Amino acid sequence: xxxxxxxxxxxxxxxxxxxxxxxxxxxxxxxxxxxxxxxxxxxxxxxxxxxxxxxxxxxxxxxxxxxxxxxxxxxxxxxxxxxxxxxxxxxxxxxxxxxxxxxxxxxxxxxxxxxxxxxxxxxxxxxxxxxxxxxxxxxxxxxxxxxxxxxxxxxxxxxxxxxxxxxxxxxxxxxxxxxxxxxxxxxxxxxxxxxxxxxxxxxxxxxxxxxxxxxxxxxxxxxxxxxxxxxxxxxxxxxxxxxxxxxxxxxxxxxxxxxxxxxxxxxxxxxxxxxxxxxxxxxxxxxxxxxxxxxxxxxxxxxxxxxxxxxxxxxxxxxxxxxxxxxxxxxxxxxxxxxxxxxxxxxxxxxxxxxxxxxxxxxxxxxxxxxxxxxxxxxxxxxxxxxxxxxxxxxxxxxxxxxxxxxxxxxxxxxxxxxxxxxxxxxxxxxxxxxxxxxxxxxxxxxxxxxxxxxxxxxxxxxxxxxxxxxxxxxxxxxxxxxxxxxxx
Amino acid sequence: xxxxxxxxxxxxxxxxxxxxxxxxxxxxxxxxxxxxxxxxxxxxxxxxxxxxxxxxxxxxxxxxxxxxxxxxxxxxxxxxxxxxxxxxxxxxxxxxxxxxxxxxxxxxxxxxxxxxxxxxxxxxxxxxxxxxxxxxxxxxxxxxxxxxxxxxxxxxxxxxxxxxxxxxxxxxxxxxxxxxxxxxxxxxxxxxxxxxxxxxxxxxxxxxxxxxxxxxxxxxxxxxxxxxxxxxxxxxxxxxxxxxxxxxxxxxxxxxxxxxxxxxxxxxxxxxxxxxxxxxxxxxxxxxxxxxxxxxxxxxx
Amino acid sequence: xxxxxxxxxxxxxxxxxxxxxxxxxxxxxxxxxxxxxxxxxxxxxxxxxxxxxxxxxxxxxxxxxxxxxxxxxxxxxxxxxxxxxxxxxxxxxxxxxxxxxxxxxxxxxxxxxxxxxxxxxxxxxxxxxxxxxxxxxxxxxxxxxxxxxxxxxxxxxxxxxxxxxxxxxxxxxxxxxxxxxxxxxxxxxxxxxxxxxxxxxxxxxxxxxxxxxxxxxx
Lengths: 489, 301, 218
Known about the structure:
By secondary structure, chain A is mainly α. Chain A has 19 helices and 2 strands.
């Protein structure tokens, strides 16, 4: 297959999978289609990655695959596959416990794949308008998924999610329109003036004033979707109320897609009016996110909300790293995107099994998991250690890179705040997870044997997590380096 | 000047008639306000025991202030007046003075309703008058003068397309404000003496005979002055520049048409809205306030 | 039409848009806010038509027509239907007194005009005062959403906010590329439908306004 074919096939595959699922009612067939669709997507993504690695970026209409997009595409494909595998076992239990209605499963699956399709488009979009449309599309599909349980909390979270992100993302549209207005005087009106590649080509000639305003608007817009504080209000609610596989996708991929949007605008702004302003804006948002998330992590009792606030912290770290800039900062940011995505999905999976086992999200009730589910507890412990930034896991490596990027240019204050918060959160996370895994199991715990498919999905992610902690494979390193070059122009 | 004073009651009569027709009543003749005035002039005066000498002078002063204001409104001619009388500031000042005197008179009489009407009127006035001022200022900033005749001439025959955002917002503010300034629904109800609803009428309760006639005539005049102000600020079409007879005649016709249109608007508003609760009035006037403030801000920026 | 006439008409429409936005902010009852936002969309459609006439751009005609049908007719109709189905108290229920929001609104408008006054070169790309008006309306829409409790009023604020963006997009040289504009409109419709469904589902499951739910905290 030519890379151009791959470019249009990639969004089509999940869309077709979604449509196909609407015709099926049986849970097992649905799960089979689910895994097949995700595996196909992962294969196509790998093929595209190889094509781009050998022959450089490819473009087709409003789509374009460059190394930067590939970093996110690979993350999306991996996590989608893991989520599909996890869903097989999770769904069996969820249906048995009445958490999911057996007759609405096809809508659930169709929405998940629709959600994945919109995310693929955001990643592959070269046209900033298409990027926005797909971003709003992710909101619409995932809002329904967040409220899928249909109880008042789910609906409340869904409402907050759709209102906050829609209003936020409309700022993103405003930013897009402003950049378009600036670019159309140089490129000429029409769809090409919204193409990121075309805008980048003329970026140094753009009017700096309008690009600055456009960037700030886009930053607020996509920042809302990425969960940067103080626009993060929807995130803990949505992450905690969504079905677990959806939480993993939201936290692992969606907020990273929004981040990709920010990076696209950042590169334009940096080329048009210098790196100063975008870097400062990113650093400020990043630090606010890290600081705001900390107290909520420490005082949290709801396991999934804890993870939600933790996502706010980590997206803040990525924004901070992008703000530090330079080759090291950008490399660290992209590496952290991958590491956090993989690890966070793993933690959500482990948390999901724990929640199913104990029938609650309250961490004061989840106790002694080692005794009832040893493998799941080990994976939860490993993931939490990684999430907290312990060596030799992957997040330690990327956080260290970010630190190096900050110390180099001498951002002492930012580095100090970052370090303090990371240490505090480290203690907070280990305290929470230690209490959940060790000790005497609480009486509500089910002692049923652990299902294989969630374990398989978790093992897959844990393997990647440990591998990336020990070494960064050369091909992957090359990809990240090239992506860094794309960001730095 | 005399022309405006004479025309004032007719406008009130016309609004009443139109309102009546809209409510499927026949309604009194448009000349009814004149009849009321002549009737009042023939009657004797009864005064409250508590009233001081000031009370007797109030109606005359109010009428004097209002009538003086009429001299400042360019009715048929645009451009600088032959001798400088005063400008928009003086006009607004005279109207405010009349309002103030009226409230003082109502308080002086010592009646409960008078005091209540006065206090209500004084609650509304601080919302209405700044808005009027701001609208006039925003127009004045464009023309570089506060003299109304010159202001109208500056705008000349320009029509809607020459309006900019500030003009639209200023006009919107005036549209919101007109019922308040002329004492009509939804801010005030001119037809009733029900203690719960009245503002303006409450202040007139203690007056009688020729005094009341003066007060009523002052209200009529005030109304036409406000309408004249709006039409000269925003629709200066037809204002005569020269002194020729045809030009003047055309000016008069244009003025009558413009005032008739605004009066129709007032009648329509009165017929289609209910009176607002007093607490809600500030919110209603707030829209006008915001529009006017924005208009002014846009001019300054 | 000469460019100056076009700019003048766009300026006038911009003022009308600001006025309707203020009406939305001052509306005491939900249905008034809905009518005001419908009127606002109508003005935007007119702006599109005027620019289409001026630039002889066929795409803009289509955009104006879509705006007219979708934003000025369908969306208000959906809101109105939801309002009828809810059958609840129709007052807006502000969190902050309306008078205070109006004062904030003035500050926002002044700030928007001041901000775009500082951008010299940009004005060429965008007709008339569309940029400050657009920024002001977008921010005021957010203000409506932040200061009103009712779900429907929040939706009105959202649509008003998007109207501000559309106005800038239409006034920017030739309007956004048609395909993008259609995609955006499609998103808006879908989002509105999902929101309407959410509002109705919450009403039927817990008999409350969705925007009043506030159990999820901390």
